[in-house]
Amino acid sequence: MAALFFNLRIQVEDVANIPQQHCVVVSNHQSSLETVLLQTLFNPLSTVLKIELLKMPVVGRALRFMEPIAIDRSEPVLSYKSLIREGENRLGAQRSVLIFPEGTRVAIGAPIRFNKGAASLAVRCQVPILPVAHNSGLHWPQLNPDRQRRIITFKIGKPIYPQGKTVSQVHRESECWVADNVKMLPSVVEGHASGR
């Protein structure tokens, strides 16, 4: 509904790359839109999020139904252990896990730097990583005063299988794929600043 209000069209490319098995989904993080949209593409899906969101009166209650993995970013060591422990539990229950390895929202055009949590989880559980690149920060949540139809593109990569690979190899492969594909997506609105 919100996308309709802002006159947005969501374009998802290469849906056929989504594996039949549960996996670790990794994506760049530019806005709240990708958090919602990716929930519709992968079911069931548990999202790694900051614990503060669960403390919000209405939003927190809704999020709990999606069996998220809540982490405290002020405690990085404990957060990592929680990610691995809870991630193993979700994957063991045949749920995919969504991780934004940048750790926070990053402005469109900024360099993409992943932490190794997602790669560590995938290697430990021997499940594929599925990389996703998008440009949601180009239009969302910016207002659209001219009411022109705007397109946000999500591109889904091929699964990265961890068998025979180290955490560093899986981490680097997923980070490079997302970074390279984000660069190929539109990053400037014609006639408007992109927020760079």
UniProtKB/TrEMBL annotation:
It comes from the Bacteria. Pfam families: Acyltransferase (PF01553). Keywords: Acyltransferase, Transferase. CDD domains: LPLAT_AGPAT-like. GO terms for molecular function: 1-acylglycerol-3-phosphate O-acyltransferase activity. GO terms for biological process: phosphatidic acid biosynthetic process. SMART domains: PlsC. SUPFAM superfamilies: Glycerol-3-phosphate (1)-acyltransferase (SSF69593). Coiled coil: none annotated. Residues 23-137 form the Phospholipid/glycerol acyltransferase domain. Pathway: Lipid metabolism. InterPro entries: Plipid/glycerol_acylTrfase. This is 1-acyl-sn-glycerol-3-phosphate acyltransferase. It comes from Oleiphilus messinensis.
